[in-house]
Amino acid sequence: MLSFGAEFLSSSLLPKNLKINIYRTIILPVVLYGFETWSLKSREESRMRVFENRVLRRIFEPKTDEVTGEWRKLYNEELNVLNSSPSFVRVIKSRGMRWAGNIACMCEERGVYRVLMGKPEGKRPLRRHRRRWEDNIKMDLQEVRFEGMNWLDVAQDRDRWRALVNAVMNLRVP
Fold first, then answer.
1. For the segment 16-75, what is each residue's pLDDT rounded down to a tens digit?
2. Are residues 136 and 68 in the same domain?
3. Number of domains in the chain
């Protein structure tokens, strides 16, 4: 994906605001398609950050170092300052939270509710536990210091849930 758009994003003929519009309207939706239902692991989170930083480095181009006068890559902190939109990881987590709120408001007979909230019968094979979708929701809620209550009950109050989703979106990614 990056190789196709790399020529456009690296071109000095296109202004930066057009490159950012390409990033927001083409690259971002393609990368984030369907992530609401995924169980995002820490390895995948770091890969998403690496990909996002590579794309942003193409858009914002290298800069000259004030001390040596040589060209250098932009640091991650500089990319975060230049890019006003939230990171991929924050968008993924907030969309997952929003989707969880929609699931919580569904009736138990709906297929989506049964698949995502159901407890399968039988035993899992012996190995490390997999992180479930619901576990990700609980971890995201812990990041915003929300603990103690059942998230399904809180999701019934749409205003409170929307505030939690916005809080997850506004957290800074390390």
1. 888 888 888 888 888 888 877 777 788 888 898 888 888 888 888 777 777 777 887 887
2. no
3. 2
Q: What is the spatial distance between Cα 56 and Cα 67, in angstroms, rounded to a whole number?
A: 24
d(CA 24, CA 18): 10
pTM of the shown model: 0.70
- In angstroms, the Cα distances linking 108 to 36, 135, 149, 152 are 19, 19, 20, 12
Residues 99 and 158 in one domain: yes
- What is the H or E stretch that residue 71 is in? strand 71-72
Query: CA-based angle 129:132:135, to the nearest 5?
Result: 105
For the chain, the maximum distance between any two Cα atoms, rounded to a whole number of angstroms, is 66
- Burial class of 144 by CB neighbour count within 10 A (0 to 12, 13 to 18, 19+): middle
